[in-house]
Amino acid sequence: MRSFGIVPPGSWLLWAMLVLALAAAPLAVRPGNATPASPPMQRMLIGAGCYQIAGHASGPVPAYCLDQDGSTPRRGVMLGETPALGAATVSVGGETMSLATALARHVLRVEGTDAPDQLSLANTTDLPLSLCVDQPVVVMGNGIGYSRDLARVYDRIDALMSADRAPPAPDETNRHERLQQSLWSLVKAVDDKDWADRARLGGASAPPNGADCPVAGATTVLCH
Prior knowledge:
The chain is of the alpha+beta class. Helices cover 29% and strands 20% of the residues.
């Protein structure tokens, strides 16, 4: 007769827990149980204009989304990156610097507001500060480093924003919404063409709009 020996106390409980864990494993990997990934944060556009902010104060600035499938920047989230598109300067205490320098030195913070049509400008200094945008500038969340698509269509973005400075037509009710739709269409067209060209040349198929893809030097890159 084969002897199985004495079962140590608690072993039956351990075996029962193992069996339950194995039974639950297939459920954990079912697609229906997976938490959907959040889309990357929108790249945002600030139009031409000058904005004055008192020391240690903040104020709203109109803005436009550039990625229709991206998420709206949440309140307090910093957008600390700006590619070399457009022209904007920050002046404080007799010193004038580029927007990129002001963001890098944390003289000025650009933050989300939970609204798709507005950002917040926060002056971190004791002195009055002014942001003057001569040509529309793009601001992005830290680590979002993709802007090649915007560079290819920036002249059209600038022309669209310049035309918008004209007085509104008497029957125009929502200029911001109309301009927002036009900006989305411009960016989406160049992104769709990029992925079509890449697929035609044998590259990887395009990920869904809003997907991430890694590149050297950036932790997150917004791709379409």
